[in-house]
Design brief:
With about 500 residues, the protein is an alpha+beta fold. The protein has three domains: about 30-165 and about 210-330 and about 400-445, no CATH class; about 170-205, no CATH class; about 345-395, no CATH class. Helices cover about 30% and strands about 25% of the residues. The chain contains eleven helices and 27 strands. The chain has helices at about 1-20, 85-100, 135-150, 250-260, 285-290, 295, 300-320, 345-360, 375-395, 420-430, 475-490; strands at about 30-35, 45, 50, 55, 60-70, 75-80, 105-110, 115-120, 155, 160-165, 170, 175, 185, 190, 195, 205, 215-220, 225-235, 245, 270-275, 285, 330-340, 400-410, 410-415, 420, 435-440, 450. The strands form nine sheets. The protein has a five-stranded mixed β-sheet with strand order 7-6-5-1-9, with helices on one face. It has a four-stranded mixed β-sheet with strand order 10-17-18-20, with helices on one face. Strands 22-23-24-26 form a four-stranded mixed β-sheet, covered by helices on one side.
Length: about 500
């Protein structure tokens, strides 16, 4: 009887111990913005010939979100930039770790790819390390400030995910030319694929698929007030706007419109929307939908309309959420792959020397990307590529190619440091062990366009040497690494 009594007490104590096991810590979230607008006069990038800016149409921002599951913190940052050099990310994440304790591998920093931002690429796109210039140092500090402010606003949060199919604003901008139709690239070779935002009768079909999903990670306070929405969509950019003017393009318009829709009082902690660029290396706005706005709504009509279209879809999705959760396990993986620069054939170097010998030299004026001197507009593209292929041919080291995976509960984000074709993002979604997966491009660096290997033979601007700057099999190696890292987090 005594032994039975002892066993009953022991069992009861065991049950009590199990019932007292700590529950998963409640998720916390905080969000903030940080102004990263360059001074007027800074180089405005987005074309073959960067030129000094003359006006600021709308401010650029680093939009920041910090999450904390009680054990791990992660930070997600989206910057209104064409892209930025790897060294900017290294410096920003160093400061973030010092200020907040968030490890560098737990911080995502991506660029939207607005074509009307200040240059954060520095002196060369073809080096792994560089001394930061004045704007790059300012940018790294302001990114860190934004993360620090987001960290300061951490509070209990609930999380949900939605993926919305939104095909109307976009199309694959690489189209196959019909039989008998060809275009000649700057290197003098014929191609069967060309770039267009409004395909006409000379084209037969798009050269690849389009990822039409708008991915949304929503955070709200337990009271129901929204904290932030981290979104990703595959639209390259919407428009260039006014010549010489700085603008966040449709990405900024989306964030402001979605914020306005929340009606948050001015004296409260602000709602912060983030719109990352998913995989849009071959996807742009359907110009048939937006071109008419140039005459009726001015140079920013397309940006406003595209931002509004995507924001309305995001808002409808946010209103429909009914499966909020108050916890989400956080984890991350980060690697730098050893990737070779693109191989440049000897005949291309001969071509480059011939172009430099023929191209007019101007004593002053904007210099095309990678060119050695200013030239006339009709030679700018060719002289730019002559400089690019020579710079690539001179490379003897390899690319430090950053890839990263973040797990946020049941959600998985994979990243690329390139302007990545949509079909690569679709492949990641299929292969990821997480059902709720998507990709974000131009993360931690900008290493040109990234097509699947078979697309390189088909031609078009994004496949040219100097636009595509990494080895042929890069997308395969990157996807394999991302899927493996996602598997480790699963």
């Amino acid at each position: 009887m005594k032994k039975l009594f002892i066993l009953v007490i022991a069992a009861a104590l065991g049950t009590a111990t199990l019932s007292a096991a700590p529950a998963a810590a409640r998720l916390r979230a905080g969000a903030a913005t940080s102004n990263i607008t360059p001074p007027i006069g800074a180089l405005r990038v987005g074309g073959f010939v960067p030129a000094p800016s003359t006006h600021v149409h709308d401010e650029l921002h680093a939009r920041c979100l910090v999450l904390d599951d009680g054990k791990t913190k992660v930070a997600l940052v989206v910057c209104d930039l064409l892209g930025f050099h790897r060294s900017v990310s290294l410096e920003a994440r160093r400061i973030i770790q010092e200020a907040t304790g968030i490890p560098p591998e737990n911080v995502m920093i991506s660029a939207t790819h607005t074509h009307s931002a200040g240059s954060a690429l520095g002196t060369s796109r073809y080096v792994n390390e560089q001394k930061l210039d004045e704007y790059q140092l300012f940018l790294a500090r302001r990114i860190a400030d934004g993360v620090r402010r987001a960290n300061n606003t951490l509070r209990p949060a609930e999380i949900a995910f939605r993926s919305v199919d939104l095909p109307e604003p976009i199309l694959n901008r690489r189209w196959v030319l019909k039989d008998g139709k060809t275009v000649t690239n700057p290197f003098g070779k014929l191609e069967k694929v060309d770039k267009t935002g409004a395909p006409g009768p000379e084209f037969s079909e798009p050269a690849g698929p389009t990822d039409t999903a708008l991915s949304i990670i929503a955070l709200r306070e337990p009271s129901g007030r929204l904290i932030s929405a981290y979104c990703a969509y595959s639209m390259h950019y919407a428009g260039m706007g006014m010549p010489g003017a700085i603008s966040a393009d449709y990405f900024g318009a989306f964030c402001e419109e979605l914020k306005r829709m929340q009606g948050t009082p001015d004296d409260s902690t602000p709602f912060v929307a983030l719109l990352a660029n998913a995989t849009s290396g071959d996807v742009g706005p359907d110009q048939r939908r937006y071109n008419k706005l140039d005459k009726t709504d001015g140079p920013y009509g397309r940006s406003r309309a595209a931002g509004r279209d995507v924001a309305q879809a995001a808002q409808a999705a946010l209103k429909s959420i009914d499966d909020w959760k108050d916890h989400a396990e956080l984890s991350a993986r980060f690697r730098e792959l050893d990737i070779r620069w693109r191989t440049i054939e000897p005949e291309l170097l001969v071509w480059a020397k011939e172009i430099e010998a023929k191209a007019p030299r101007l004593a002053s004026g904007p210099i095309p990307i990678a060119a050695k001197w200013a030239t006339t507009p009709d030679w700018a593209t060719r002289l730019s590529y002559a400089g690019r292929v020579q710079a690539l041919a001179a490379k003897t080291d390899n690319v430090k190619f950053p890839v990263q995976v973040l797990r946020i509960g049941e959600i998985c984000i994979g990243t690329s440091p390139c302007e990545t074709y949509s079909e690569i993002g679709l492949d990641f979604k299929k292969r990821s062990p997480f059902k709720k997966s998507f990709m974000v491009q131009l993360n931690h660096a900008m290493f040109g366009y990234l097509p699947p290997p078979y697309q390189l033979e088909r031609g078009e601007y994004s496949t040219w040497p100097g636009t595509n700057i990494v080895e042929r099999e890069t997308s395969v190696k990157m996807l394999d690494a991302l899927v493996q890292m996602a598997g480790e987090l699963k």
